[in-house]
Amino acid sequence: MTTRVLLVDDHPVVRAGLRAVLESVGDIVVGAEAPDGRVALEMLSRAGGSVDVVVMDLQMGSGMGGLDATRRIVAAGGPPVLILTTYDTQADIVAALEAGAIGYLLKDSQPETIGAAVHDAAAGRPVLSPSVTARLMQRVRSPGTSLSAREIEILRGLATGASNRALAKELFISEATVKTHLVHIYDKLGVDNRTAAVNRAREEHLI
Amino acid sequence: MTTRVLLVDDHPVVRAGLRAVLESVGDIVVGAEAPDGRVALEMLSRAGGSVDVVVMDLQMGSGMGGLDATRRIVAAGGPPVLILTTYDTQADIVAALEAGAIGYLLKDSQPETIGAAVHDAAAGRPVLSPSVTARLMQRVRSPGTSLSAREIEILRGLATGASNRALAKELFISEATVKTHLVHIYDKLGVDNRTAAVNRAREEHLI
DNA sequence: ACCGCGCTCAACCGATCGGTTGACCCGGCG
DNA sequence: CGCCGGGTCAACCGATCGGTTGAGCGCGGT
Question: What biological processes does GO assign it (chains A, B) (predicted)?
Fold first, then answer.
């Protein structure tokens, strides 16, 4: 039985590459592609039954981000979500797994590795890149400052210099909620303003 | 006459995607692929005459980076180098152009755009993504991003998350003066708040 | 001597941020 | 089942920040 995939990535080039790689390893067919989280959700709600696994990038230039989309797909009882991205920072990995992703792969993986991972994820088996596993172990060994997935997202926005209003729009929440998150972040990081929070987050390699 | 391309990117997925995209727009053939700068240089020195343009990523996980490779190819009188990457920071763009690249494209460009750019680059015509052009204009408008010594000091303080009052105490000036400096800094960096200023300053290696 | 520029300061105002209280929903856990 | 934590939101207030105008000082160059 062939595995049917929904590709979510804002780069046409990457989508084409993944399509080529996946369909060349056999027993995989890319049934649909989406350039961001919003479109992916629409596609799933319309033809969810025909997708065995979602292969999702985390970084989206615009539109709904990968984390948000993953959360919603999982919440809606959709197909398993396999994160396929470029970065392997602790913050990204933990946030993705907390959001409910079934796996976390790096884009520089070998084609066969990616193919095997897609089959595993579709079957509900968790998959992690070796380097990702390493970072995860590193984390459990040293229980650092624990920010929630949502808080990390907020922090990322902060680092770009976004205002509360811009942050709210970006994450589809109200300014009030952004402020609530900020208070928690300041508390956990031991600071009292956004710039200091960004500074501390960089120091602790949270972003 | 078909344009012959050498692809340099450390991600197999991206190479596959670019190959698919380029060869689908017509009159382009990907003659060779290299996973890093070193391999690319070897290929060129052995079969340089058969490459019309090098399509190069900047970020390479390991091995020789894209900047270094571009410099050497240009120095050796090799084919034009078109940078195709994910980021559009001023630092990256300026560095690439200084290294001698003939163009700078973003990976989220449309396939047809990329195809046209490859043809242009091969013919020796410079090409830039719109957003890249915007950043460059931004840079030329702000003359060399030349901040005064005092402004750099302020910026350093900003980066630590200090308030205007703390900054004033630290530098033995009044809050009013701090605010004046800040306005000038925002102006020169093209931003409108302290966190964004710090972000931009990091990008441009001003701190 | 004059001009330009960087640095300094003041006063003012609207916009944004920081902080608090209180509330609701949901999912996981004992 | 009830509890708790995470996420969401509202309303409110004082503090801080962003932006403007206007002005004085000292230093270096034409």
Answer: phosphorelay signal transduction system; regulation of DNA-templated transcription
